[in-house]
Amino acid sequence: MTVAYGCVLVAILLPYLCTVTAKVASGRYNRRANHDPRGFLDSLEGLPRRAHAAQLNSFEILPGFAAAVIIGHLAGGAAQGTLDALAVAFIISRLVYIACYLGDWARLRSLVWFVGLCLVVSVFFVAA
């Protein structure tokens, strides 16, 4: 498995890190809340709600990133090291994005989100 493919696996797991953060940070997740976890997550405020929002955004960006990595490998136009570096940079951008979301740093979060999107688009360009 290449580093870029490994980054896809990490990107798949990142939303779950966010949802665990949301549930734990709420301090009130229990078996009763587990009967309606989506309703529970929608009712959160503050840090837990931001963690939930980071989870949703992480799921939203995942298909584009995974497709870019797969297409990048299949197209064969880019060196493996370049694909790996872009994928690692994307994961770093997602970790910073999540930290910005949790810290309620909206402007920086938006900038980091844009950087991550540019990294995904870059994979398509280097593969062409």
From TrEMBL:
It is found in: Membrane. InterPro entries: MAPEG-like_dom_sf, Membr-assoc_MAPEG. PANTHER family: BLR7753 PROTEIN (PTHR35371:SF1), INNER MEMBRANE PROTEIN (PTHR35371). Its main location: membrane. It comes from Pseudomonas typographi. The chain crosses the membrane at residues 85-103, 110-127. This is MAPEG family protein. Keywords: Membrane, Transmembrane, Transmembrane helix.
